[in-house]
Design a protein that fits this description.
The chain folds into 2 domains: about 180 residues, Rossmann fold; about 150 residues, Glycogen Phosphorylase B (Rossmann fold), CATH 3.40.50. About 45% of the residues lie in helices and about 15% in strands. It is built from 17 helices and 13 strands.
């Protein structure tokens, strides 16, 4: 069987790492990189640190508006799929690469397998929500990270081809955990459990001057150490709005460039609290048992909130500061989201598909 996987962004590189080796045991696996993330720290380093082979194709799409970026991906993906004629196409998560891969394959009547299916924020003004809903509705096989995700699909009338397999990102974290040491803390002069790791990249926050001003006010008012690896898009906007200089002059704020996967993950593991608007980082915080403060009003990972590990605060300065002052450490983590057998379960589901 020939399997083509479409990736293009940080979470997808992580998800494909354990899956590639499992698929390649018995099948021909082609990796197509759209180029949605293209900087070394946001792309190539993941392949190096996670031992993923160089992509068979790199479309080099780069940054652009949603319409331009997705349309470029569709053109490039169609050419590759026409040449390779895979038996099925795997897509991951909820990015523009996800939707483009699903649409290109579906238009060519190639079965689509959606890894991380069924997540919902129920906000149609979020690009990620549109991507994941549309992808789910053209997929032949829907592989869910949790039972709640499968229930979400059932509410939309999708019951065929649905399997709860867990998340390969968790399998990846389990695999790399022994390699996460505290050297990165020494590099930046940090102490274990005495800093807040913060990431801000989501469009609804990073592109809003009002929201970013509120978030930055909370960061500046916080009395402990804030570690802030800045996404290029966020940094560009903060500079344009003349907000970045305030952060740069704050002695308790450590601004870092985008980090390698291993360095960032080590900072997650040893943080006191993680503050983020990233879905993947929320889940990673949950895995490491680190309280999370999410600067959104909703989350796709509802179990992290229900089990007490995640607090939704939006972008209100006072709510952010209150949550940072009293972070919620949950009592247990009943929803594992995965184990070392996720990739094997996915391959079993793929091999059980009726093709042709």
């Amino acid at each position: 069987m020939k399997v083509a996987s479409v990736v293009g962004a940080r979470p997808q590189f992580i998800k494909i790492a354990p899956l590639h080796s499992e698929i390649s045991r018995a099948h021909d696996h082609i990796i197509i990189h759209t180029g949605q993330h293209y900087d070394y720290e946001m792309s190539q380093v993941f392949f190096e640190e996670l031992n993923i082979p160089k992509p068979d194709y790199d479309l080099g799409v780069g940054s652009a508006s949603h319409a331009v970026q997705t349309s470029r991906m569709l053109v490039g993906l169609e050419q590759v799929l026409l040449k390779e004629r895979p038996d099925l196409v795997l897509v991951f998560g909820d990015t523009n690469s996800t939707l483009a891969g699903a649409l290109a394959a579906a238009k060519m009547c190639i079965p689509v397998v959606h890894v991380e299916a069924g997540l919902r924020s129920y906000r149609k003004d979020m690009p990620e929500e549109l991507n994941r809903v549309l992808t789910d509705h053209v997929s032949s096989l829907l592989l869910c990270p949790s039972h709640l995700a499968a229930e979400n699909l059932a509410k939309e009338g999708i019951t065929g081809g649905v399997h709860v397999v867990g998340d390969t990102m968790i399998q990846c974290l389990i695999g790399i955990q022994p390699r996460l040491d505290e050297c990165v803390l020494q590099r930046y002069g940090l102490t274990r459990g005495e800093y807040v790791l913060t990431t801000i990249h989501r469009q609804e926050n990073a592109d809003s001057q009002t929201k970013m001003k509120s978030i930055v006010d909370a960061i500046l008012s916080y009395e402990g150490t804030i570690v802030l690896p800045l996404h290029p898009r966020t940094a560009k906007n903060l500079k344009a709005w003349d907000i970045l200089s305030d952060l740069e002059s704050a002695k308790h704020v450590l601004i870092l460039p985008p980090l390698t996967f291993m360095s960032f993950t080590a900072l997650e593991r040893y943080a006191q609290v993680i503050m983020t608007d990233s879905g993947g980082v929320q889940k990673e915080a949950y895995f490491f048992g680190v309280p999370c403060v999410t600067i959104r009003e909703e989350t796709e990972w509802e179990e992290t909130v229900a089990e007490g590990w995640n607090t939704l605060v939006g972008t209100d300065t006072a709510r952010i500061l209150d949550a940072l002052a009293s972070p919620r450490p949950g009592r247990s983590r009943r929803t594992s989201y995965g184990d070392v057998g996720v990739a094997k379960r996915i391959v079993t589901c793929i091999e059980g598909m009726r093709l042709g």
